[in-house]
Amino acid sequence: MTQNQKATHSESVFKKIDWTPFLFLTLTPITAIVLTAIYLKTEGLSLPIAGLFVVMYFLTSFSITAGYHRFFAHKAYEAHPLLQWFYALFGAASFQNSILLWAADHRVHHRHVDQDGDPYNIRRGFFYAHIGWMLLKSDYRKSTDPYGRDLRQNPIVMFQHNHYVPVALLMGFGLPTLIGAAFGSPLGGLAVGGFLRLTLVHHMTFFINSLCHTLGRQPYTDTNSAKDSWLMALFTNGEGYHNFHHYFANDYRNGIRWYHWDPTKWPLGLFAWMGLAWDLKTTPEEKILEARMQMDERRLRSQLAQRFDAFAERLESLKQKIQATQTHLGELRRESARLRKEMPEKGRERLELIRSELKAARRELRSQLAQWRMQIAILSRQGNPHPHLSHP
Ligand SMILES: [Zn+2]
Ligand SMILES: [Zn+2]
């Protein structure tokens, strides 16, 4: 790239930046570090402020995973209006856009995963899927239609959407500052319960789009990049079982076994018992097993096909060598016959030479044919994974 091209390139990147999210997403972590450092230096960490951090972290991240994601975007269960208000208020405190925009984006992500239409397409790179997609002006979202149509009928969703900024500021920064003040430290409340908590909740959620499409296993499907990983589940409030989630998106759980770390599903069980949530959707066990078996079969098929391709390549090259040796043999035979007929005296020396060449070519052909038979025998043994068991 020339100097001029470089300058034009950086100019065009500059033009593409969406400045509001760019400044917000870069300045909040810096503010979190600076304010937390000042707070720790001047006042020292108090137990109520540490508790405020834990409670605010859980309430706001839970509102994203259980509310924005599993309830509003996927309708994995029904929720009482009280619970919906709770999600709308504490979800706003996570500063990830209104429910309407978040859920519409997320539905598009599921619909077009790994393709051009996917708002956080992992094929555009880890950084892009994590945060880059929010820093640049988007060309994918012209409107929330049709993906947000049903949500626009919900008055709680629309109230939050229409009053998003004041609600988010009040819940995300105002509330923790007030609670901090009640415990004698408004600065601690704002720094730790506000900015630090917000930065961590942000990146926890962003990991779902970046790491959960990068690290882990694919037990249910390999038709998209979503991965299952218990380690990611620890970081993401249980959303790390993302391969399962992309295959069975309407299940209210992401970790389906009792021992799967999914702190989003456990409170939902409690809310169901309290009557705040109902109709919690779960995928029938036989469907889950069917998906796993299908995936095992697909994986085995592709492994066998790869192994077969390697053999086929080896056989093809051997076949060409055998054919070349055969052609060479034919030429030598013809040459030897001609020499014997045409010039029995003069050509004696040449004839001797051809005879030894013929011998060598026959030897070569025998060895190549032996190799061929050996390859065929190995390949047919590969078809039977336990030959020693079938021939005791
Ligand atoms: Zn995903
Ligand atoms: Zn989802």
3D architecture notes:
The protein has 392 residues and is mainly alpha-helical. The chain is built from 15 helices and 2 strands. The radius of gyration is 34 Å and the shape is elongated. Helix 3 (47-73) crosses helix 4 (81-92). The protein has 2 domains: 3-283, no CATH class; 289-390. The relative contact order is 0.08. Bound molecules: zinc ion (2 copies). One zinc ion binds next to helix 11.
What are the salient characteristics of this protein?
392 residues; mainly alpha; 2 domains; 15 helices; elongated; binds zinc ion
Describe the protein's topology:
Layout: H1 3-16, H2 19-42, H3 47-73, E1 78-79, H4 81-92, H5 99-111, H6 126-135, H7 155-162, H8 164-182, H9 186-209, H10 230-235, H11 242-247, H12 265-274, E2 277-278, H13 285-342, H14 348-383, H15 387-390
Antiparallel strand pairs: 1-2
Helix pairs in contact: 2-9, 3-4, 3-5, 3-9, 4-8, 8-9, 13-14
Summarize the structure.
This protein is mainly alpha-helical and 392 residues long. 69% of the residues lie in helices and 1% in strands.
